[in-house]
Amino acid sequence: MVLKVTTLCIPAGGSGEPDPSREASAPVRVSWQGCSASSGPRPAPSTASWPTPCSSLWGGRRRWTTSTTASSTATRSGSGRATAARRSTSTASTPSSITCGTEMPRGWAGGVRGGVPLSPLPASLLCRRFVHSRNRAALSYTLALNHLADRTPQELAALRGRRRTVPAGVCMGTGSILHRSVKRVPIPLSPGAVTPVKDQAVCGSCWSFATTGAMEGALFLKTGVLTPLSQQVLIDCSWGFGNYACDGGEEWRAYEWIKKHGGIASTESYGPYLGQDPGATSASPFLPQNGYCHCNQSELVAQLAGYASVEPGSATALKAALVKHGPVAVNIDASHKSFAFYANGVYEEPRCGESTLDHAVLAVGYGVLHGKSYWLIKNSWSTYWGNDGYILMAMKDNNCGVATAASFPILA
């Protein structure tokens, strides 16, 4: 059952009075990300793939992009050391079959046909062909080239750092949410539970971003203050709990570390995100400890009483968790090229698996667009990816496993 929420938008730079004309025609959606208004004219429904940025529960003000045209290749953003997968990339030979994302020397997309080398082509050109062919198929979403266009499959896989393990002898949280009518759940109406989109760089640390995103939302609900929490402290310090920094990890292991140590450090207290494993050489002498764990020198906040898993596969339970507990850490199948080049619209990939989950993200809301139910997901691949770093993922048939392995923290 979709929760109908009425929240009025205040246009940026406006008088502060709500604009009922925007709210009246907005699709129903529930979100922790918040309400924003474009300063320009509202695009026609036939050209916009995103809903009007209204009907929100949480989050700061932001501008949503509604362009559906494929953009040119963006400048590659982010920094950090390459993972072991990237270091082992082979460039000794040229494969005979070249596709977008094929393992190749960077900037080269040549091949061999009948013993005759083909002309070198930019890898982004093949990706552009893939993007255009998908967009011509008139799907419920559109693709666009982005900063990932020149990365190899190994480099893309390194971004998906969710480890596929099952807790051995560990109780998964303090319980699970059962089927519950969303109408019986009180609706919080204060915005601000979601921090800006971040960039994990070439590091499989998505699990740390999902964990801190859920913790930030829970801490905001308790204190009314939005505090950016440190992903780097989890990368540096949770090795003893089974996480492997840039080589992957799991949220429940991070929760266990936070619970044992009495909280987690803020970004301001611990230091900036490095996008590298502990001990890796830093390019800047001013970055603290070069990635070594130094949580004992930081102030810890957000003491954890426990964590809970949402009933696997239940959209109703996940909706209830979002409304009552705020942003929820979820795991998805993000292994497809269509995900890497997503731009806008409701993403529905028939090849997505419900159990082959390889990437951790943050669910911040849900809604309906053009008759399709969706989850509003915050990624950690920078604002160059997706729609300012966000994606609408289809709710139908638990596409890509959004509701398979969801969890949220319970603060002390």
TrEMBL record:
Domain Peptidase C1A papain C-terminal per the UniProt entry, residue ranges: 187-410
PROSITE patterns: THIOL_PROTEASE_ASN (PS00640), THIOL_PROTEASE_CYS (PS00139), THIOL_PROTEASE_HIS (PS00639)
SUPFAM superfamilies, A to Z: Cysteine proteinases
Keywords, ordered alphabetically: Disulfide bond, Hydrolase, Protease, Thiol protease
Biased composition (Low complexity): 65-97
Coiled-coil residue windows: none
Keyword Cell wall biogenesis/degradation: no
Chain segments carrying region Disordered: 33-52, 61-103
A single GO BP: proteolysis
A Pfam family: Peptidase_C1
Any one Gene Ontology molecular-function term assigned to this protein's record: cysteine-type peptidase activity
Family: Belongs to the peptidase C1 family.
Record's protein name: Peptidase C1A papain C-terminal domain-containing protein
